[in-house]
Amino acid sequence: MAETALVALAFASSYLGFALIALTQKPHHGAVSASRSRSGLPLGTRRRGLAFGSLALAGSFAASLAAEGPSFGTILWVLCLGSAALGVMFTLTYRPHWLRGVQRALAPVTPA
Amino acid sequence: MSVLHTWVGVVLGAVLFAIFWMGTLSVFDREIDRWMMPETRLGPAPSVSLDAAARTATTLAAGAKQWSITLPSERTPTLQVRYPGPEGSVLRHVDPATGVALDDAGTLGGTGFIFPFHFTLHLEWLDLGLWLVGLCGMAMLVLVVSGVVIHRRIFRDFFMFRPDKALSRSSLDLHTGMGVLAMPFHFIMPLSGLIIFFSLFFPGTWHAAFQGDRAAFNRETFGSYSRPRANAPGTLGSLDAMAAEAERRWAGGKPFMARVLEAGDAASVVELRRSYANDVSMNRDAIYFDAASGEVLGRFESKPVGAVQRFIAGMHFVQFDHWLLRWLYFGGGLAGCVMIAAGFSFWLESRRAEHARRGWLGVRVVEALATGSVTGIVLATLAFFITNRALPASLTLAGFEREELEVLAFYAVWLTTFVHAAWRPRAAWGEQALAIAVAALLAPAANWLSTGDHPLRALARGAFAVAGMDVVLLAGAMVAAWAARRLIARPHARLELPALVAPSARPAESEAASG
Hints:
The structure holds 2 protein chains of 2 kinds.
Chain A: H1 2-23, H2 26-33, H3 43-94, H4 100-106
Helix pairs in contact in A: 1-3
Chain B: H1 2-26, H2 29-36, H3 50-60, E1 67-70, E2 79-85, E3 88-94, H4 109-120, H5 128-150, H6 167-181, H7 183-196, H8 198-201, H9 203-210, H10 214-222, H11 239-249, E4 255-261, E5 269-274, E6 286-290, E7 296-300, H12 304-317, H13 323-358, H14 362-390, E8 396-397, E9 400-401, H15 402-423, H16 427-451, H17 455-460, H18 464-488, H19 492-495, H20 498-501, H21 506-514
Antiparallel strand pairs in B: 1-2, 1-4, 2-3, 4-5, 5-6, 6-7, 8-9
Helix pairs in contact in B: 1-4, 1-5, 1-13, 1-14, 2-4, 2-18, 5-7, 6-13, 7-12, 13-14, 14-15, 14-16, 15-16, 15-21, 16-18
């Protein structure tokens, strides 16, 4: 049970990590917020996105290792990263608004 | 680098797709076996006594110089007995509950056709297939590296997929998306594949280390024990007692296979191999016993370099019991298939107009090749499955047994898809996708009619392999139907170029068909 929860955490964490990283990129940021705004992202927000995103990916590695041990855990993490990244890619294409919550968490102030 | 990536991709893409496709299916080769061999759809295996299994094996393999028994496992619920027959190795499945040998399944199945196709392409002459697959493995590494180098906006387009843009653009997005995001998988798979066959592809390594002494190399790397025959009759002691001794020496590791060498001779040897169901690494740990007394004669464990090779091989073979990883490997393989297909699509769409204008054959030839190797091999595989479930196992037609008829159906359909693709360029994609949708519906239907196992019944009685295969086929049918609808509804008027239907293009068409 704890193992299943850790594996789920590994997947959720890599998905979140890639979502955060994707949202530091202008086209994806724009698609998610559905705003016409052409202004770039503030540097602070971008840095924060990359930092938290990388942290989430690292957290996913830790969860994989904790769930499956070093050999299975590493393989699981690598495959988990790939599937999460593809998941984010398809979310951004077909359901970008799903990531609005992630975006809001990332933004320092509510946009006007 | 761009030229390199393009040429290697176009020239070897067709073979690469075949390797990826068959490799993807091989992840579930034993589940395919259960589906194609209804006799072996047994419930979870009871714990089997090796001595009881040995009694069955000695009856089946009476007179054979050696035989082996592989114990039932989660994925293969039968006891498998192997022994050399007059026409090569014989494999018999035995019901572990009764000890009765099951009827010959009359099929090569997933482990006998699909899995070897993955690394030999069934081209056995001069090991041509193996070498071709080796070349493709090397090429795949070149493609991954050159692909990264020529990808100008690898970070900016990391998550970019724009299906509503022009086909050339969306194909490229899909190609790079699948390629970049699943890159570790696409790199590790060919690399580990090459490492599995290191002694064939890189013979210099062991030649140098063992001064060309193949026997010494085999002994040191793979472990083997032999002693001369006594040419006097001998007995076989208790295998269960030997297994208990092996478990003690392996600190709890269990044997999965027992092999009896020089069976019936006074110098007969029993080899027990250690299970790797719970490890990534496919260990070669073995203990050798004197068959009569059960005295330990020798023990093998891989040396450090060998152990690394076994880990890498295990990572490629996925022989461990881990369903989540098994599905992720399957997904990774499918991502590779999509990557190759999208790569072809990009190549074709970005050159179609120019080639048509200049009267070049390139697009016509590559398109026929790509269609046949992408949708064609999928259709051929489905024909293989349907033939298995539509014909009775004992059927012989025109001198061919069913086992051969299945393979024949595979190649006949595959060849036809190439001819069809050459005859109907462009339209063939959609038409073959439609045929895939129909065939992927027919296969579970044929399974239902021939065995009574529809997915729900299979699920209810715990035949997960059968239910899983049916569900994947049905899901595949849906994807294929969706793709067919999109491909057939594609606005041809906008994309079809006048030069293709103009009289000047006629010779090109016939040449493409013959090529």
